[in-house]
Amino acid sequence: MDQPGLSEGEHSHALAGLGRINWWSRSDAIVWPVILELARRRTGKPLQILDIASGGGDVALSIAARAKRAGISVEVDGCDISPFAVKYATQQASNRGQEQVRFFECDVLSESLDKQYDVVMCSLFLHHLDEEPAQQLLKIMSQSTRQLMLVNDLRRSRAGYGLAWTACRLLTRSSVVHTDGPLSVAGAFTVNEITELAGQAGLSGFQVTRHWPQRWLLKWSRV
């Protein structure tokens, strides 16, 4: 979806397809238990959450919906480098009656965030980056969170490649997703690689856990 000249119709179709893939693979369910645990330990102000590279907004919106069902007060923001993705996500929030979830345009690798958050998370974006910018993103995320940092991403493996190829064709007709899905797995980090990368980014005490389907979750807490 980073290719120049992509029409709004193709972009919208691709974001919708990725939303279905995120729903099927339960991307929000990978990060939610950790967020819930933190929220239950807190009292007072709402938990402030930022989803970096939020795309079509489906993970941020799902987290906000889960929090509402659990009776937990949260403030959820999403940011993305793409103006169209921000526009699309904002419309999705309106369609779902979740206008309180805010989306804004920001390239976090070159622009400063205007505030810190209790939770800074990122889902299915790190595999788009080479090692140096990926390490930079981890540093930025750790500096931008007051308490918790979560990175949920693809795990490079033969099984993951086959699963991505199949799921992308079953869940969406978007040719962009058909191409990007398998390529994303091919460019993703293994558990050993993300562990090494997190250490190089200066994180200590982090945890990396494996999740279905062919995912890993990097968790780092300031406290």
Automatic annotation (TrEMBL):
InterPro entries: Methyltransf_25, SAM-dependent_MTases_sf. It comes from Gimesia algae. GO terms for molecular function: methyltransferase activity. Gene3D superfamilies: Vaccinia Virus protein VP39. This is Methyltransferase domain-containing protein. Keywords: Methyltransferase, S-adenosyl-L-methionine, Transferase. Residues 49-144 form the Methyltransferase domain. GO terms for biological process: methylation.
